[in-house]
Structure formats: structure tokens, C-alpha cells
Design goal:
Oligomer: single chain
Strand content: under 5%
Number of helices: 2
Distance between the termini: 36 Å
Radius of gyration: 15 Å
Number of domains: 1
Largest sheet: none
């Protein structure tokens, strides 16, 4: 299981806010995609 999703599973298991954890995982995943695209555009301009 990917480490980011493990936080959602653990939040649900221990009675924490699993919905917030899943939103944060989604936000960081989208931020990662955006930053990879931005860095590739800056480092290797076409």
C-alpha cells in the first residue's frame, strides 16, 4: 500500500478524521504532479 494512503487507513482505524486525511492526500498528490510538470518545463524547455 502506498505510504500516503496508509495515513487514511490509520486515521479511519483509530477514529480520526479519515475524510480530512484523504483530502490532504489528494492535495499533496496533485501538488506533486503540478510541481513535476513545472520542473520539467523549467529544466527541459521545448
Amino acid at each position: 500500500m502506498p505510504s500516503a494512503l496508509l495515513s487514511v487507513v490509520l486515521a479511519r482505524r483509530y477514529g480520526c478524521d479519515a475524510e480530512l486525511a484523504s483530502k490532504l492526500v489528494l492535495a499533496t498528490s496533485l501538488g506533486c504532479v503540478v510541481s513535476i510538470l513545472l520542473m520539467s518545463k523549467l529544466l527541459w524547455p521545448s
